[in-house]
Amino acid sequence: MLxxxxxxxxxxxxxxxxxxxxxxxxxxxxxxxPLPGLDLPPPxxxxxxxxxxxxxxxxxxxxxxxxxxxxxxxxxxxxxNSGSVYESAETTGVSYLLEKMAFKDTKHRGHRNxxxxxxxxxxxxxxxxxxxxxxxxxxxxxxxxxxxIEILIDCMRNPLFLQEEVERQLVLAREEVQDLQxxxxxxxxxxxxxxxYSGALANPLIAPxxxxxxxxxxxxxxxxxxxxxxxxxxxxxxxxxxxxxxNYAECLLNDWHKGSPVEKPKSTYVxxxxxxxxDSDMTHVALAFEVPGGWLQERDATTMTVIQxxxxxxxxxxxxxxxKGMHSRLYLRVLNxxxxxxxxxxxxxIYDNTGLFGIYLTTVS
Length: 365
Known about the structure:
CATH class of the largest domain: Alpha Beta
Helix content: 25-40%
Organism: Panicum virgatum
Oligomer: single chain
Strand order of the largest sheet: 1-2-7-3-5-4
Mean pLDDT: 88
Order of helices and strands: HHEEEHHEEHHHEHHEHEEHEHEE
GO molecular function: metal ion binding
Radius of gyration: 28 Å
Strand content: 15-25%
Low-confidence stretches: none
Distance between the termini: 91 Å
Number of domains: 2
């Protein structure tokens, strides 16, 4: 009897030891098979194809565009035909301030309440200014899109531009302008436009200090009301049903007034040269030429972006970890051969009717 119990005891002890050491048979904790009683959703197809882009123009001129992209998240954004090209000597730098004044106090909610509502939806908001466009975006889960649409429209249509908030943002803007001298790449990107064009595209995107000294809440409000009109606005969204967004837009945007017809300020590419002496042992160079047509020549603009990707670039030291950009053409044919070059990359700026394409490099002085 004892001899019959020993094998069973040995087997039981062996199983216990295997479990203790993490050596239990795979069938005990396998992830290859679904758990019993678990209902899984049907798998997504391998190729979903591209969702069609639907565009509807409201009676006041606002264009509503959507792509119903599958997935749990959605993004909605306002694109306004406004920016530094529409600034005058009086309003220089206002677009730069409008970016900083985004998602602050509105007629219907204070900034603290706004932040609280954003946290409840898990939303991520952002604003950016460029020479020809202002962009305001809101990313969140699809279930929160009704709240996101209402919040975004409120922030776009009803900003208060409180003087105390304007003064607070002006302080931050002055600090950024002073730091611009310590950021050669950003500084040279600005210089490319300032010397490359005459006319509106030569207006500074980053406000100079003397312009910041003139800006106040009244100037910002005047520029906003003159340029943020319905006929210059596009409401675009991905991951959103077109009819649903259209219903919200018709309800919340139908009383947004059209503006008077505005002729876009003209710009001419003239080329030029700018040199700035700095106390540094490194030399930074940006060299670019015009690509006529801009986004209106869509094929050429797309070709330019492909060429930029093919050329790529990188640095001799990559802050993002080893291997970043190492197989790009500029990395293989410049950085690997000329060790005095610290970084080398292709750059581009594309506008409605023109564009710039070139290179940016850093080398030992």
